[in-house]
Design goal:
Blueprint (H helix, E strand, L loop, with lengths): L6 E2 L3 H6 L3 E5 L2 E6 L3 H10 L1 E5 L4 E6 L3 H8 L12 E7 L5 E11 L2 E6 L4 H11 L6 E4 L5 E6 L3 H6 L14 E6 L2 E6 L8 E6 L4 H11 L5 E3 L2 H10 L35 H13 L4 E7 L10 E4 L2 E12 L4 E8 L11 E5 L2 E8 L9
Parallel strand pairs: 1-3, 4-14
Antiparallel strand pairs: 2-3, 4-10, 5-8, 5-9, 6-7, 7-8, 10-13, 11-12, 12-13, 15-18, 15-20, 16-17, 16-19, 17-18, 19-20
Helix pairs in contact: 2-7
Length: 372
């Protein structure tokens, strides 16, 4: 894609003024890192980091049958989500393949916001519009209506509390409430993709710079730093969180991905993919599919997506994501492996890194879990 076709967030000029290294991500020109990605990663784990996530795709669903539409279109029980709460869910094809993983916020009785991954936002929008036929509900593309800024890490509640009178203590994980942050109207959500406590702030694009600068000032005394997509990837990898296009794809059902719990067969009515997913659930019980596991390197060589996982001279799986782990101090990976080799502590497992079989330890996910 040529640089002229790249989309820019409302914070683009600010990123460049901070010396960000930019990259094309799903058609957006996004900050990859500002300095050392290891330092940015460590800041989020120990202090706080500030992220521009305005490339994410917001889709608003409103109307008397908004809940019924989302219950039909998605695999989760969305009608059961209370106002002010959010739910992690997926949208699947008729054959059960995952089109995207989503967070759905119930903003009001008949109003929802669906947040899709940047690379899939158009696919999700098109699917929701198509599936809305026959429902008294409207699907609206709100990708240009929001900028999204995240503050993540153990210092993030204190930083945000200094800028808002919203009840952050009462705001549970996977909940959102309207409020004002540094004078800017925002939807304040206690969500994130780092494995740390933190918040995602949905605001109008014209307020993004003002909010970013206010958060930066508020975090100066506690070590807040701007963070790019590179450390967001290592943070989510350590936290065992799947990334679409790596751990999730149309070739996999939620049951293949070890996320069958998001499929709610008990909800009322039909939903897209129900029959195929019911078969996938049965097959998973009879013959477990490849299992998503963690791998920790014994050496220093870093595994990458697509590398073969081997045991006894046979290919037993494939790496989906791999990187050096700043927190563990070793290379780590997520991989789908045959069930026979999936138990934590399984020995004799390696990754084929350019013809050399490097030894790896199989571990349970996540690699990192924050202390509550």
């Amino acid at each position: 894609m040529s640089s002229t076709a790249l989309r820019h967030t409302a914070l683009d000029a600010l990123h460049r003024s901070l010396g960000a290294m930019m990259t094309d991500f799903a058609g957006w020109d996004m900050p990859l890192r500002y300095g050392s990605e290891r330092d940015e990663h460590t800041a989020v784990r120990t202090r706080a980091g500030l992220f521009d996530l305005s490339h994410m795709g917001e889709i608003t669903v409103t109307g008397p049958q908004a809940a019924a539409l989302l219950d039909f279109a998605l695999v989760g029980n969305i009608g059961g989500v209370r106002s002010g709460r959010a739910r992690y869910t997926m949208i699947c094809r008729e054959d059960g393949g995952i089109l995207d993983d989503l967070i759905v916020y119930r903003l009001a009785d008949t109003e929802y916001m669906v947040v899709a991954n940047a690379s899939n936002a158009q696919v999700v929008l098109d699917a929701l519009v198509e599936r809305a036929a026959g429902f008294d509900a409207e699907v609206r593309d709100d990708r240009d209506a929001y900028a999204l800024i995240a503050v993540q890490g153990p210092e993030s509640p204190g930083i945000l509390a200094s800028l808002t009178d919203a009840d952050l203590d009462g705001l549970k994980y996977y909940a959102g409430l309207p409020g004002t942050v540094a004078g800017v109207p925002a939807l304040i959500a206690r969500t994130g993709y780092t494995g740390e406590d933190g918040f995602e702030l949905f605001v109008k694009p014209e307020h993004a710079v003002e909010l970013w600068q206010a958060l930066t000032r508020a975090g100066e005394g506690v070590g807040l730093v701007p963070c790019g997509l590179s450390c967001r990837d290592t943070l989510r990898l350590e936290a065992g969180m799947p990334l679409y296009g790596h751990e999730l794809s149309t070739a996999l059902t939620p049951f293949d991905a070890g996320l069958g719990r998001v499929v709610k067969f008990e909800k009322d009515g039909d939903f897209v993919g129900r029959e195929a997913l019911a078969r996938a659930a049965e097959q998973a019980l009879e013959k477990p599919p490849r299992v998503l596991v963690g791998l920790v390197a014994e050496g220093r060589r870093v595994p990458r997506a697509g590398f073969a996982v081997v045991a006894g001279g046979e290919v037993i799986g494939e790496v989906t994501s791999g990187a050096p782990s700043p927190t563990l101090g070793k290379p780590i990976a997520m991989a789908y492996v045959d069930a026979a080799h999936a138990a934590p502590g399984t020995s004799g497992v390696g990754v084929d890194i350019r013809g050399s079989h490097e030894p790896y330890e199989v571990v349970a996910l996540p690699f990192y879990r924050r202390q509550k």
